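Dear colleague,

Following up on Tuesday's group meeting, I ran the structure prediction for the two-component complex that the binding team flagged. I've pasted the input sequences exactly as they went in, so you can double-check that nothing got truncated or mislabelled along the way. The structure tokens for the whole assembly follow below. Feel free to forward this to whoever is handling the docking comparison.

Inputs:
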Amino acid sequence: MKQIVAKAAAGRAMGNLFAAAHGRLPGSGPVAHIRARAFEAYERAGLPHRRIEAWKYTDLRALIGEVLPLAPRPDAAALVRAARSVKQAAADQAVKLVLVDGIFAPELSDVGRLENGVDVRSLREVLENSADSAIAALVLSTTTDAVISLNAAMATDGLVISIAEGRAVKRPIQIVHVATGSLVSTFTRSYLQLGQGAHAAVLESFVSAEGTSAYQTNDATIVLVGDEASLSHIRLAADAADAVNISSGIIAVGAGARLDLFSMTCSGSISRYQGFVTLAGEGSELSANGVNLIRHKQHVDTTIVVDHAVPHCTSREKFRAVVDDCGRSVFQGRIVVRPGAQKTDATLTTRALLLSDEAEADNKPELEIFAEDVTCRHGSTLGALDGALVFYMRARGLSEKDAQALLIKAFLGEPIEEIATENLRDLVSAQAEHWLLARR
Amino acid sequence: MALLEVRDLHAGIEDCEILRGLDLTVNAGEVHAIMGPNGSGKSTLSHIISGKPGYRVSTGRILFKDEDLLAMEADERAAKGVFLAFQYPVEIPGVTTMNFLRAALNAQRGARAQKEFSTPDFLKRVREVAKSLNIPEGVLKRGLNVGFSGGEKKRNEILQMALLEPSLCILDEIDSGLDIDALRIVADGINALRSPERAMIVITHYRRLLDYIEPDVVHVMSKGQVRKSGGKELALELEACGYAQFEGAA
């Protein structure tokens, strides 16, 4: 009985939100129809809760209760505040594309510095242009996941990036999500397509302007990596301490193509990154890695589903979580090998380091194998820092915190080393360093 | 003033008393050998002097340079000049020997309000010492002790000792697991560090090590106490008669 009441409450709040957003959501005709259908799908399911297996450890109904009202369009003052955070978050050499409170901000972006063969438009522009209806439908595609349906219904803006065939993009493209409004929600949706043989590095950063608190971010990114193409896709979530960030990646990798995925969450109150990667073309390779740094009462969930749809694909996954105070880490890694996807080679390792007695980590690796000639492995460990190592270092003069910091860095090193682009790897290392400094 | 004074030390793990009234005085410039059978408390003594957690000291005191050593954390003791060469050096994947050495050296210098070494000075110093210990430079770039042989691990301990320049070196069974050539390199490294300002406590089961490192004083430990002390001839006597004669003595 209680459950039904909760669901009704969440649904009602959401219904108001959708109605209130009318006129703010770009697109009419078929787009509006897709949105309405997506919203209905969300409304039927409501916010995910613990009895939905994929959300077992991240019960949004219990954790966030309701979705906050849509963020207003950023005004001039908001853009000024956002600009400061963008400056801090900017990766060296990167071409920035900035979304403020869910709206593309060309004035803060480096549109003029885009390389040849890189086409960028705002989602708003695409949805409002009826000639783009095919792209619009693709971008707004939904899955059975309720937060993705909600995202399709509510997306105010995003980036539609297309990289031409054979083009090797030199500078990383950085999408910066900045929140400036408190107690509001943003919904962004982006689409990234690499043509055949193209190469690119895309960094996604989630930050907030100073003084912003308690916002909710719901982002979805749809990625198509063309045949023989290669993409390095890095996400760095450094939200405000009491923010909620639910991000989804829906990714397909073509034949002979390679995707290097890296995800790091180092702040925010409740965060989930769910990546759905389909190895759709033969001979494709995935290297998916991540690091979550969790403290206070933070809840950080990384859920990765790798779908080996065709034969001869390889996936390597390495995830680490460091959990301090009363933090909670969730890692769910599912590997699906479809019938006929022979010679699949998949490995998943996940390790959690607990720094306090109250820290918690839940690891759920799953293998679903429907082909016979495959190699699939998974390993999962959970533990505290080794006291013998700490003592050895202290006996050489390192303080307890310094010894711990060195050991934590070593623990995080392996996945971070997988980031091939040096300045992006340095950026991630610097974030980890920053997190560790606060422990001193 | 003695460099290290241990007085009536009673200590152990939980309710098990391992050291039962141990006395030991070590002056600067001296090399002391501590010999004794398994379980006599030799390693426990080295752990307690260096500040390893998990031991309980019920009575007694340890003074180092006239300061109460037991009141200090392990890293403070290191910064004051206490160094323990481990019997079993740990492996630390992901932390290169070079980075670790540098972090340790700068932490100690920081604690003593000394200036940090510049990168070129540090590298020069490490290379010199590594060369004298026959440690290839490539090894320094690998994870600390990861995949090292027993001999390499022990040489790495001496490398750290040489760089950190402690005033009290405790060498806990530095000879265990070493072949004769490695033993000679390690012993040469230790002898090179002998100085009038520095004292050493060499813990060993075997007299052989003392052929390479000549002690000024030899102590026989048994059942948590020093049973007998003497010159280097005591080691020869031990080899002839064994430890049994000390087992029952009070």
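Chain A touches chain B at residues 386-389, 391-400, 402-403, 406-407, 409-411, 413-414 (CB under 8 Å).

Cheers,
M.
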